[in-house]
Amino acid sequence: MRQHLDACRQKGQRIGLVPTMGALHAGHASLVRRSVAENDVTVVSVFLNPTQFNDKSDLERYPRTLEADCALLEQCGAQVVFAPSVEEVYPEPDMRVFSYPPTDSVMEGAFRPGHFNGVCQVVSKLFMFAEPDRAYFGEKDFQQIAVIRRMVEDLELPVEIVPCPVIREESGLAMSSRNTLLTPEERVLAANIYRILHESTMLHQSVGATHDYVVQAIDAIDGLQVQYYNIVDGKTLADVSSWDEADDIVGCITVFCGHTPIRLIDHIRYK
Ligand code: AMP
Question: Distance between CA atoms of 162 and 138, rounded to whole angstroms?
Answer without folding.
Answer: 8
